[in-house]
Specification:
Number of strands: 6
Low-confidence stretches: none
CATH superfamily of the largest domain: Fumarase/aspartase (Central domain)
Distance between the termini: 33 Å
CATH architecture of the largest domain: Up-down Bundle
CATH class of the largest domain: Mainly Alpha
Strand content: under 5%
Number of domains: 2
Structural class: mainly alpha
Number of helices: 20
Shape: elongated
Order of helices and strands: HHHHHHHEEEEHHHEHHHEHHHHHHH
Length: 445
């Protein structure tokens, strides 16, 4: 944690859900639920489970001291169990952590941390999607320069641009909601031998107590669940990074089709008074672009040997928390950026018209092709475009005067063909379909 940087790169509600205090709270919840589950299965007296639960309270434990003690055993669960046991009175102390191993506690706590962090993350992600849906509907017919390989292409609509954002955001939310968030309980080698024949019953009750799924078997060395979480978070960050990057580019001085209008002081510069930087979009990218490396670490740690791994398990803890934190921050900042967004349709049209119709050259070629053949039409229109770019006249004038183009198209027809509003293809259809899909997705979540 950093007091200097976290306000920027660890913003939003996810931050508190992955803090050291949140991990401790999750481990305490695991120990409490384990005792309660054993009481449910008839292994432990209910009074003993309740005594253990009373010891698993916030405020009883020193994070720094637990961290110092963890050095000796290689994980924070072992010293925590000792601390809980010391606070439990009488015979109940015998049943603290009964049947479990440290990895059971830390893995299940990790799943709890993920589940709790996903709630505010998805709230922000859903809000981003709603904002994108609003933009898509409002600007379904707002013409805009299409850009491919960073160069101007044929027209699109800003609604179609926003619909693309919406589709990606909904896909990311769908994947995050589909995570296999299961408890871990297997004991020393995944057999729950110390619980005897009650092991399966304890596992089922344990999952029920924590509101998590019951796995078919312990997953100490089968780490696909962690990899899936990493992949879903990295995918979400990728969606955010793409949207935020586009917003940053559209806000460039030379383009100026959108802008962020934040509170006074936002987007300023330390040296240039005129600057109005799209700072929320910029920081969203900064957070999102941390995801590939963090996810890569988690994928690299998947190779767990035998029944319990040496080192690979330990390698997961910090990057998982950081990936949740950075993705949550990225989504938070994207929500801020889109909430602040101001769209300038007039500037979008101005940027289209500045080309003098060059961007619609494909449409003229298509109109000529039935009469002249595609290759002849392409060559004639290309020659006129080159002359227009060289300043010899407007494209409409040059096409009208061209022996081939002018023979088959009147000046009025050419002007109509060069109107970007008339060459949007199925843009509106795709926007409406994206909005319909979004509404359907909302009904299922």
């Amino acid at each position: 944690m950093s007091e200097l940087f976290d306000g920027i790169i660890a913003a939003g509600a996810v931050r508190s859900e992955v803090s050291d205090a949140a991990w401790l709270r999750a481990m305490l919840d695991v120990e409490s639920a384990l005792a309660a589950a054993q009481a449910d299965a008839g292994l432990v007296e209910r009074a003993h489970a309740e005594e253990i639960a009373r010891a698993c309270r916030d405020g009883y434990y020193d994070l720094a001291e637990l961290g110092a003690q963890a050095i000796g055993v290689g994980n924070p669960a072992a010293p925590l169990v000792r601390e809980i046991t010391a606070k439990v009175a009488g015979t109940a102390a015998r049943y603290v952590h009964f049947g479990a191993t440290s990895q059971d506690v830390v893995d299940t706590a990790a799943v709890l941390v993920v589940a709790r962090a996903l709630e505010p993350l998805l709230e922000d992600l859903d809000a981003c999607a709603e904002l994108a849906a609003g933009l898509a509907g409002e600007h379904a017919l707002t013409v805009q320069v299409g850009r491919t390989l960073a160069q101007q292409a044929i027209p699109v609509t800003f609604g179609l641009t926003a619909a693309g954002w919406l589709s990606g955001l909904d896909a990311a939310a769908h994947r995050l909601r589909g995570q296999r968030l299961a408890v871990q309980l297997g004991g020393a080698t995944g057999t729950l031998a110390s619980l005897g024949e009650r092991g399966p019953a304890v596992l089922a009750a344990f999952a029920n107590r924590l509101g998590l799924a019951e796995p078919d078997l312990p997953w100490h060395t089968e780490r696909t669940r962690i990899a899936e979480i990493a992949g879903a978070l990295a995918e979400t960050s990728g969606v955010v990074a793409g949207i935020a990057h586009t917003l940053t580019l559209l806000a460039q001085t030379e383009i100026a089709e959108v802008s962020e209008q934040g509170p006074p002081g936002s987007g300023g510069s330390s040296t240039m008074p005129h600057k109005r930087n799209p700072i929320a979009s910029v920081v969203a990218q900064a957070c999102a672009r941390q995801a590939p490396g963090l996810a890569g670490t988690l994928f690299g740690a998947m190779a767990h040997e035998y029944q319990r791994a040496a080192g690979a398990w330990h390698a997961e803890w910090r990057p998982l928390a950081e990936l949740l934190r950075s993705t949550g921050s990225a989504v938070h900042w994207l929500r801020t950026a889109v909430e602040r967004l101001r769209v300038d349709p007039a500037r979008m049209r101005e940027n289209l018209d500045r080309s003098g119709g060059i961007l619609l050259a494909e449409r003229v070629t298509s109109a000529l092709t039935p009469e002249t053949g595609r290759l002849a039409a392409h060559d004639a229109v290309t020659a006129c475009c080159r002359r227009a770019l060289a300043g010899e006249g407007t494209l409409a004038e040059l096409l009208a005067a061209d022996p081939l183009a002018g023979k088959h198209l009147s000046h009025e027809q050419i002007e109509e063909l060069l109107d970007p509003a008339g060459y949007l293809g199925s843009a509106e259809f795709f926007v409406r379909r994206a909005l319909d899909s979004h509404r359907a997705f909302k009904e299922t979540r």
